[in-house]
Amino acid sequence: MSRRLAVILFLVTALPASSQTPLIHDEIIVTASAAPEPLDSAPAAVTVVTAAEIEQRAARDLADVLREVPGLTLMRGGSPGKIVSLFTRGGGSKDTLVLWNGVELNNPFFAGFDWARISTAGIERVEVVRGPYSALYGSDAVSGVVNIITSSSGAPRFDADLQAGENGLVNGRVSGRFTSGDVGVSAALEQRSDDGFADNDDFDQTTAIAEARWSLSRGSVGIRARVNDYAYGIPRSVNPSGTAFVASLARREDGEELDLALPISWTLGRTEWEVVFSRNDRTDRFEDPEDPFGRFWAVTDVVSDRASALARFRTGSHLLVGGVEEERASVDDSSSYGTSLDSRERTGRGLFLEDRWSRSSSRGDLELAVGVRYDDFDTFGSAVSPRASVAWIRGANKWRAGFGGAFRAPAVGELYIPFFGNAELEPEISRSAELGYDRRLRSARFSVTAFRTDFDELIVYDNIANRFENTGAGRSHGVELGWEHQISPELTLNASYTWLDTEDLGSGEPFLRRPEHSGSFFVRWSDGDWGASGAAVHAGDRADLTDLFPFGRVMSEAHTTLDLMVERSLGSVTPYLKIENATDVEYEEIFGYPSARRRAIAGVRLRL
Q1: Nearest Cα to 12, choosing from 496, 439, 444, 449?
Q2: Which of 137, 46, 135, 138 has the alpha carbon at shortest distance from 403?
Q3: Closest CA to 88 of 31, 145, 148
Q4: What is the mean pLDDT of residues 317-334?
């Protein structure tokens, strides 16, 4: 692998740069340093997914777009609408921090995040930062951060998109943005229904997003709200030996989520201040009236409140970013077996400081970020998370390196769930290092990063102690490649590849659901009137566990899916046709739960 990497670097660095007007534009990102900075100067491994890229794929789920980001693997438990887990750089599904406009969405009950609950409605861009970021964001930012960004600023517009497809798919979306003087308002509404590909495989979801922002002479005040309501059936599954899964055809799940945020910003002298108050309130319900062991139901209510204050101060070539944060999570959980958690809480406070330093010379530009964060939780005590990264930029080339420590606080369920919880749990910890190289040309951008992470004190279920314990340990290392090339104004190519090697140090086996080889390829042609695109996504062989009899470790086979789309622009109206899984591949991302087969979808977009 090292020889192949050296050859790739030699070929890419040998390509000539150009001083002409670039076709690949530099984006301003905010996630890597908690401050706006150009993507091409950030000392970090960052991928930006734009609203235009989402539209080019006619994507309903953000998860289906993130599959093309290097270093990320997403696994869905069946057809669209079913639970989706994300794995970054070999870390677990609980090791990626998910932000919505900087507000945390991870579930404190059992950590992690269900990516099936995020549609693409109202999204302006998504920033994916890979690596340890607990030094900025605290718990859960072990392997990376995904920040989903909406905006009420910009030119006024109105968009509508209607899709209809096989198996009862109907998806309607409207969004708009309006500015009047110092006030900017935006909103998006999406409604989806889908009958699925089997009995009891239906899915319904409604998503609404609204934002208002008042610009003041020295700052702004805003309010953001996101509402998500969902319901789906869980179909019976059959393993290769023909043994039926125990779920009945009456098993269902539904819920709703409300996210609120009040961001306030102002400038005083050379210091920029930001204060954010936020709440995440969710309810999830599960029911199977025909369960083999009798009618079963469960309801979980989770409320997370956060308050944060951040300051940015520039002095000379230094940008100092510091802040404080306080969070409180409360969980109520009950089922047909009785109440398991009654307003059990977890509280935490954090304090961080980062120095972002830049220096230019005839030999190139040097970018350095050094930061540390101190967190204190009422459950286990304190954690200290350092991070340092550096980049040297010369012409079209950027070499970068980084190191950091990160942690994941024990979730409320891991601490207090009856019989299996353990109130003495310590946080999971990790240490990561990376080396990377980026090259930007007039019409292309290339990135390669080698990384390694060591995990310790992992929280696993101990069969002997019959409860959660900090007895797990592991490591992951690999290489991720990203490439985008605008060959001409009409033709664009994007590609990604990830080689990943993981090991559970206790068993010597690879981590579950993380393939050694994965990647994607996207091609789009458009002459302004007609457009056509194809997206191929590959996931290699990977280890998994089965809840089918006989229980145990299994191997899921590699699969490659292909989506095709063609569209015709008629001014403000664009009809299109999309074929998902065009080759009709039979595959399972999670063992025992068949994924969607081929489906044709017709749609039309309206933009005013």
Answers
A1: 439
A2: 135
A3: 145
A4: 97
